[in-house]
Design a protein that fits this description.
By secondary structure, the protein is of the alpha+beta class. It has a single domain (about 10-210), classed as Alpha-Beta Plaits, CATH 3.30.70.1230. It has helices at about 30-50, 75-80, 80-95, 125-135, 135-145, 155-160, and strands at about 10-20, 55-60, 65-70, 105-115, 120, 150-155, 175-180, 185-190, 200, 205-210. Strands 1, 2, 3, 4, 5, 6, 7 and 8 form an eight-stranded mixed sheet that branches. Strands 9-10 form a two-stranded antiparallel sheet. Helix 1 (about 30-50) packs across helix 3. The longest helix is centred in the first third of the chain and has 21 residues, at about 30-50. The radius of gyration is 16 Å and the shape is globular. Residues about 205-210 have low confidence and may be disordered.
Amino acid sequence: MDDNGLPGHPVPRAVFGLDVVGYGRRAGAVRRTLRDDLHGVARAAFAAVGLPLERCASRDTGDGLVLAAPADADCGLLVGEVVQHLDRRLRMLNESRSAEGRLRLRAAAALGLVMRDDEGLDGDAFVQLARMLDAPAFRELIDGHGTDLGFVTCGFLYRSFVLQHRSLLPPGAFFEIDLTNKESTETGWAWVAEPQRRLRVVGGRLGRVL
């Protein structure tokens, strides 16, 4: 874990999280490989946009990774270019792998308050991120359509960056999704990687399965 100089009081930061799909169902040796792959893919994707992980406050979650971007980071990168690089890296990594060995990821981005304490990273933004990644509708979306990468972002980042074309992912590729999870009730905006995507987006909402 690296707190990268986060203060001991809440400050606003963009946060990003990754979870490995089906991690607990894999054999021990496969899980160890997937953990190494996760960190390699994340490190390469963030470095490719000029945001090396060494500049971020990060924490390994066992089956994933969460991080807070530096205060001067362009949030548009987190809802666009970083996701594109993750997609490319996963395609290369999984090209010759069996289903058991594929690295499949759920990714999420949000904005909120973060801080460090004696135990590491804390803050409402990390709680929101965990709920987004674990939302039943998002899990079912990724499980049901066989994609290697699904991404969801909060409404603020979608409206401020994706809709304003300050992100490299086009608004028409996103659809609204229910992120209700435990006592949290909210909606977000999801994107699913091609070519596995068999979804049709109509008017900003998920249409029929193709």
